[in-house]
Write a structure and sequence with these properties.
Structural class: alpha/beta
Order of helices and strands: EHEHHEHEHEHEEHEHHHHHEE
Number of helices: 12
Shape: globular
Strand content: 5-15%
Bound molecules: nicotinamide-adenine-dinucleotide
Distance between the termini: 55 Å
Largest sheet: 8 strands, mixed
Amino acid sequence: MDIKNISVIGAGTMGNGIAHVFAQSGFKVTMIDVNPAQLEKALATIAKNIDRQIAKGTLSEEQKSSTLGNITTVTSIADGVKNAELIVEAATENVALKLDIFKQIDASAPNGAILATNTSSISITKIAAVTKRPELVIGMHFMNPVPVMKLVEIINGYATKKEVTQTINELSKQLGKIPCTVNDYPGFIANRILMPMINEAIYSLYEGVAGVEEIDTVMKLGMAHPMGPLHLADFIGLDVCHSILKVLHDGFGNPKYAPCPLLTNMVTAGKLGAKSGEGFYVYTPGSKDLKVSENFK
Ligand code: NAD
């Protein structure tokens, strides 16, 4: 399958990174978001991340202008997907929202276009079932931050054609990534293993076994993790973690996946981690200092 034009739906934490890596590899990218301010912010983030690469000497000014020149932005899904050979959906982790978006993509994307989702946990088979082309629907799960992380977890839905899996594997390699193909069960591999660990770290805090810094230090120094689980949860987004745990809980029907009540409370209170300025830690723009939230002192 010859792929040159990619549409990325959702310009949040993941969408801007996905648009960045495709554009930097020479693909024409249309970035789509319902929120125009989010599109502006995404372009600014991409420019800032490229500047960091220029400062390190890994990218040139010419590559910056060609990468940014490869990206256009629109707010309408119908307009944004009509010329794409591949659509990568990276909108909010919500089942009803994703099913609605896939119906819209299916109605406007060219016949034969591959429809991929960056979902962290939602069933690819369920998403595929609302389209008229389930054989062309696949999971293409990038890791955060996309320009840095090498893995792409590729998820085969029940009906995904072998040629589609092969195309997405090859495309991931073209982006300089390492693809790894798995089957479609709740949380796939990455989050089926990661989220219970994060949830257990939150339970340890909730039950008073240890404080935020102690929990993160034990896992960093003891297990050689680059980031403690509570810091990582803040970085992923506590709302995203909560949604993934609910998908695991519903999908397996096993109480061990139920989100810790402390996580539920934090999400309800709007403490979503780095993106909202506070989670287990407090985040001040422009500062690398990591301070534990007053709630946990
Ligand atoms: P986010 O909240 O940062 O961004 C979501 C974006 O989707 C927002 O800009 C929002 O305006 C947009 N959006 C909502 N409804 C839309 C619609 N109908 N049409 C177009 N845009 C719409 O979320 P995120 O963290 O970037 O997550 C996006 C997806 O990536 C989710 O499925 C998530 O599970 C997955 N994911 C997240 C991470 C992570 O670390 N945050 C890692 C891997 C995968």
